Structure prediction request, 88 residues.
Amino acid sequence: RYLRADPHAFHAWLTLPENWHADMFRMEARNRGVEVVPAAAFAVDPSLSPNAIRICLSHESARQRVRQGLDTLAELLLEAGEGGSMIV
Prediction:
């Protein structure tokens, strides 16, 4: 429901829950060593972009590092749901 990807694509789109703004999610992911890009970076009018991030799946050649990155993103989503790690 939150993750969208074409099976032949090298990236996926993750729609974020309301309690996570894409820019804040990006900063927290970066603090944990994972780079993602907010959807606004790809929009003609960033103010109309969805609250989502683009996850590149092809940059890392080691599957274990891709897995670690995805696990980190999943942890961030869970923490936000628990009222945890938010940047203020």
